[in-house]
Amino acid sequence: MKIAIYPGTFDPITNGHLDILERALKLFDKVIITVATNSTKTPLFSESERLAMIRKAIAAFNNVEVDLFHGLMVSYARKKHATAVVRGLRATSDFEYELQMALMNRKLDDKIVTVFLMPNEKYTYLNSSIVKEIARHGGNVKQFVPSFVLEALKKRLFPTQRKNKRR
Ligand code: ADP
After folding, report:
1. The ligand 1 atom nearest the CA atom of 86
2. CA of 20 to the centre of ligand 1 (A)
3. What distance in Å separates the CA atoms of residue 8 and residue 124, rounded to the nearest whole number?
């Protein structure tokens, strides 16, 4: 059984993440989405909120799991018997950081292979930060995220507007 981990912040999960996940499932028997808890970023959604959104997004797959992880990615991968780390590559701007991480992880454990997958072109300019930024300014991000993520974004970013609407 070929197992891969797919680590990231997923704040929140987008259609770009899901595109990469579906491609990874063509290569691996099981993919474990691992939500990093030791990120230096300040997330908009809590760990449990991010996990809950991912769980909803992967409900249709029986070979995808989601988990929290902190510490070293290679240690986590070993513990889960994973032999690969999946990462998405959108543009050359991703490359330098990803190369550094992949080479460092290989130094730490050369049995774990980093696999880079390219998303559909329509997602190459998409990331969670830009989705949050557009949503924050009232732009429509419907085409970039699952519907329940859209709702969660509206609720988090405009809590009072929703209350007013109900009055
Ligand atoms: P990180 O904080 O590690 O960048 P993210 O949640 O932003 O975590 O992303 C996790 C992984 O998913 C990364 O490999 C990232 O490149 C990839 N990814 C995110 N958005 C997209 C997208 N639109 N297309 C392809 N890969 C993506």
Report:
1. 14
2. 9
3. 17
Q: Which residue has a Cα nearest atom 24 of ligand 1?
A: 16
Count of residues in the chain: 167
Q: Output helix, strand, coil percentages for the chain, rounded to the nearest 5.
A: 45, 15, 35
- What pTM value is reported for the model? 0.93
Residue whose CA is at the smallest distance from ligand 1 atom 23: 16
pLDDT in tens, 17-52: 999 999 999 999 999 999 988 767 789 999 999 999
For residue 42, the model assigns a pLDDT of 87
CA-CA-CA-CA torsion sign (95, 97, 99, 102): negative
Phi and psi torsions of 166, nearest 5° = -70, -25
Output the pLDDT for position 165: 55
The 10 Å CB-count burial string (b at 16+, else e) for 42-56 is: ebbbeeeebbebbee
Distance 127 CA to ligand 1 centre (A): 7
Q: Which two tokens stand for residue 67?
A: 């988990």
- Catalytic site positions: 17, 41, 90, 128
